[in-house]
Structure formats: C-alpha cells, structure tokens
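Input (structure):
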C-alpha cells in the first residue's frame, strides 16, 4: 500500500526520468497540445499515458480528436516506457506537488490504492447517465469502482498470452504451423535457428521478461496453477515442482533470443518479427498495433496464436483512466465528457482497431475487426465461463503494485543471470511474492 507521504520519495526518481526522458525509438513526436478553436483553460484535459509507440500513438490520437470535436483542448502528457513504470513514477510526483492531471492511465489494483488516498473523482454521474453497469463485464466494472463508486473508466481489453509469428520466417525454416505446446515450440525454434534467423525477438526489460514468464508459467502449469501462484500468491504453488518446470522452460526460451536483447524496447522486438529477422515474440496484443501500423495482415504476413499450452486461457489486461479530483466545474465537465467519450461506441471501435485490443464495452459490432481480435473476443467470453479468464500479473491486474514490482525484479534477475540456479530462482520469486 502506498501513501501520499511515501509518494514524496518518488519525486526524486521522477525528476530523473523526466531529465533522462528516453523516448521509445521510432515513436512519432508527441501531438501538439493545441486545439483548432480557442478553448478556455478549464476546458483543457491533460491526460497522462505511456502510449508512444507507433500503433499506440495512433490510438491515443483518436481520443484527442474526439475530445477536440467536443470542444475541449487536449494536453498530451505522454511518458515513454513500455508497461508504464516511468509514467507511474512521474504521476506520483505530480500528485505530491498538488498538481495532478485531469486523467491518468492507471489500472488494476492500483486504482484502489489511488482511490484510498482520496485523490480520485467520483464518476457515478456519467456512469449512470451512460449505463456503464449494463455495458461492462462485471469483472471489469468491479476493478473500476472504489466503495461501489466509479473512479476509473476502462478503455479496452488486451490479451497478454499471445505468441506472434512471422509467416514467411516459419515457411523459410520449414515450420508448418504455430506450435501449440512447449515441446513443439522448441522444435520450431531449433529449425529457425538452423535457418540462420532469430527464433525469439525479446526486449530485455524487466516488464517484458515478466510478460514472457507469465505466459510460460500459464502454459506449463495451467490456469489453476496460475491462480494459486499469481493471484493467491500461495507459497506452496510458488515453490512447487510446476514452478521449477516453468523456470526451466523460461530459461530455455532465453537461449533462443539474440545477444542484443538487453534493454530493447518492445516495439523494436515486434519490428524484428515484422521485418522477417525473427520468428516469434511473446507479447500482449498491443504488438498487433505495430503489425497493423506497418500494413501487415494477420493470417497472411503474421500469425497470432495463444502462447504454447495456453489456448484455453486468457490473461486479461484492461487499460483504464482514473480521473483526479479537480475544483473547477468546467474542468469537471471536461472530465465527464472524456469518460463518456471513452465508453462511447465510436472511440471503442476506432481506438481498439489501432491498439490491437478489443472493446471493453459489451455487444460491440466486431465487423471491422480482424481475425485475431475476433478470436480474442470469442476467447474472452468463453474463458469467462470456463474459469480460464485470469488477470495478468505482469500488467498490474492481479496483485498490488508493490508485490508485482518485487516479483518482476526477481523474475528479471533470474532471466539475466544464467549462473543463478533454478532452485534459487524459485526461492527468490516466492520471497518476492511475500512482499507486503
Ligand atoms: C499497457 C498497454 C501498452 C503496453 C506497452 C501495457 O501495460 O496495458 O496499453 O501498450 O503496456 O506499453
């Protein structure tokens, strides 16, 4: 649990991030914070997010357009850094300074923590007027509410347990179809290696290591194991033979990555698959936003398949915006308009077409969506009734940020240190899971 006093500690770190401000490569320049018509300052919405890669930037530009059409000016507060860790640090410094943005991309259990600080606005008026309770899956609505009141608005549903593959690379390597089990995966990876190409495109950043680990553990152990280990944080599951197998498999995946992986941004790893340099990437479907932006077609140029062993499961990652308490009535009205726009059908369609995710709003027309999105949509519904629908721990949906942060670091230390034994890796992740 964080507190506002603890937040102050983040200020120094935040100023460093702002000072060193590394932009994800190949990201377009941030959109200018201007509007075609003169708009009173109170009607400007400042929105913090970390969507700076190609497909992401295109997606958020649609929200800006819709808000401008409603007569609001958009002040872009983009903090680069996949997974959002940098953005969260910068956000904390702004709140501590008493100057929060109107809205910020905050998700999962962190919403509860921010709400408990008393800094979030109540969105019930908009939620009631727009019937959010009937338009949202209950599993999502619950996350957006604090003490029964809406304090955040969901944008989309990302699926994390995807494996992306370049069709031409697979063909060249003699791999007939996307592998369905880890044994099949390693056989395919060997073939790709023999063909002189990189089997796995990976970006060696702690959140990306954790993203891959989550899918490997789910594939090796199944959803029951995943729930015990990563939602209930059960020490028995975390130190089980299944966990050992998961870490062994994870280490084997690393042996198929290239030497330049450390530090690489996720979108550059996706670019390796797009450009036929690598065969596979384990990443959520924001990667599809990059394929789409590059003009690639699913089923033809690239394949989307569930990570080996995870076809019956769905690790969900719901992006959402929490709104901060603002005093001015015009500013509050702008926040309400932003919240309503996000849940509107126009935004839900166009944003998610670009972002690679699926609409979070129920009963949306999926005609314009591709086969990957349709599969995601079907699996979201199907796994909700079979119990295969689980929150992504790597993307802050399953446990409080302090716990997932500690586990993320432990997973990354294991990934980066080939000398660490699997037994030690298991113990260090289990210990991190006991963080309170
Ligand atoms: C977010 C996505 C984002 C990705 C890469 C995830 O945690 O949910 O919206 O595209 O990180 O930055």
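Output (sequence):
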């Amino acid at each position: 649990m964080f507190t506002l006093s603890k937040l102050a500690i983040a200020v120094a770190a935040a100023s460093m991030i702002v000072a060193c401000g590394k932009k994800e490569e190949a990201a377009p320049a941030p959109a200018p914070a201007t509007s075609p018509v003169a708009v009173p300052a109170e009607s400007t919405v400042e929105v913090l997010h970390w969507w700076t890669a190609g497909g992401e930037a295109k997606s958020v530009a649609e929200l800006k357009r819709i808000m401008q059409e409603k007569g609001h000016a958009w002040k872009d507060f983009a903090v680069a850094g996949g997974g959002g860790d940098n953005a969260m640090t910068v956000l904390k410094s702004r709140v501590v300074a008493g100057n929060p943005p109107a809205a910020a991309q905050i998700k999962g259990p962190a919403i509860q923590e921010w709400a408990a600080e008393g800094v979030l606005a109540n969105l019930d008026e908009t939620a009631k007027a727009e019937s959010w309770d009937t338009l949202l899956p209950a599993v999502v609505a619950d996350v957006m509410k604090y003490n029964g009141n809406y304090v955040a608005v969901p944008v989309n549903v990302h699926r994390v347990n995807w494996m992306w593959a370049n069709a031409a690379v697979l063909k060249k390597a003699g791999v007939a179809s996307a592998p369905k089990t880890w044994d099949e995966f390693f056989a395919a990876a060997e073939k790709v290696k023999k063909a002189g190409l990189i089997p796995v495109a990976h970006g060696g950043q702690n959140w990306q290591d954790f993203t891959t680990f989550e899918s490997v553990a789910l594939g090796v152990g199944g959803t029951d194991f995943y729930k015990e280990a990563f939602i209930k944080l059960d020490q028995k599951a975390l130190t089980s033979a299944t966990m050992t197998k998961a870490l062994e498999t994870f280490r084997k995946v690393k042996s198929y990555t290239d030497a330049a992986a450390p530090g690489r941004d996720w979108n550059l790893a996706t670019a390796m698959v797009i450009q036929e340099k690598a065969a596979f990437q384990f990443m959520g479907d924001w990667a599809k936003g990059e394929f789409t932006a590059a003009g690639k077609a699913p089923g033809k140029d690239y394949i989307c398949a569930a990570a080996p062993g995870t076809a019956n499961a769905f690790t969900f990652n719901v992006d959402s915006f929490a709104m901060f308490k603002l005093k001015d009535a015009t500013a509050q009205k702008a926040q309400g308009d932003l919240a309503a726009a996000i849940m509107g059908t126009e935004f839900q369609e166009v944003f998610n077409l670009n972002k690679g995710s699926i609409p979070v709003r129920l009963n949306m027309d999926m005609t314009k969506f591709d086969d990957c999105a349709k599969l995601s949509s079907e699996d979201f519904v199907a796994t909700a009734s079979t119990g295969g629908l689980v929150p992504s721990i790597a993307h802050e949906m399953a446990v409080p940020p302090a716990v997932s942060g500690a586990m993320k670091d432990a997973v990354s230390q294991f990934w980066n240190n080939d000398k660490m034994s699997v037994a030690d890796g298991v113990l260090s992740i289990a210990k991190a899971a006991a963080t309170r």
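Notes: The chain has two domains: 4-158+317-389, 159-316+392-433. The first strand starts at residue 44 and ends at 49.
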